[in-house]
Give the backbone structure.
Amino acid sequence: MNFEVYCDESGLEALTRKDAHKFTAIGGIWMPAEFRDTFKTEINAIKEKHNVKGELKWQKLSPAYLDLYADIINYFFDKSELRFRVIIIESKTVDNIRFNDKDAELGFYKFYYQLLHHWIFDFNSYNIFIDYKVNRNKGRVNILKKVLDASNLTSDIIQVQALPSDESVGIQIADILTGLVSSKFNNEFSSKAKGRLIEIAEARLGKTITPTSKWVEKFNVFKINLQGGW
């Protein structure tokens, strides 16, 4: 089966400045490729309902747009074709000097690998789209694809492509859900609307947003342990 994955991150600065946030989050939306056109049409219909034409982003959420973002959250939970996975990284445990040769950018893409690899299953094909950013090493995205290829021999990683978020509705929805989880873990809310949206998501989940097991399919939260041990 052919899948598409759309990814974004929140609190990235905490990987280099540990006082910026307690946690960094990298998240992705998984969907069957055949669902993409329906997904785009239905998300755009929600935007039209609320008379919104611009990019959807967690940082844009304010009380004036709460109903719009609530509809987006409910849409995600209503659609069996959509799944979400997010990796949570505790900033104080990240040691780029010891493990990444002082290269925080390398560390970031290692975390991207951890997000993606564990949800790539045998005999499927994957097109992966990540939020575009300017990298010091221009080959980072290609290297990520090669490493995913090498570690998933019975699956086909068709591409890993960086796209500007304003060109991808999938990346925008990944941004909202990733920002929501990041704010929950960091206990950071710049508006009451964000706290309310988290409440809406937790009501649909039927529980508080906390780390889950690998096999939770709809809303998977992977809090990575970088300290070793059991």
Observations:
- Residues 2-223 form a domain with the Nucleotidyltransferase; domain 5 fold (CATH 3.30.420.10).
- Residues 99 and 107 are 8 Å apart (CA to CA).
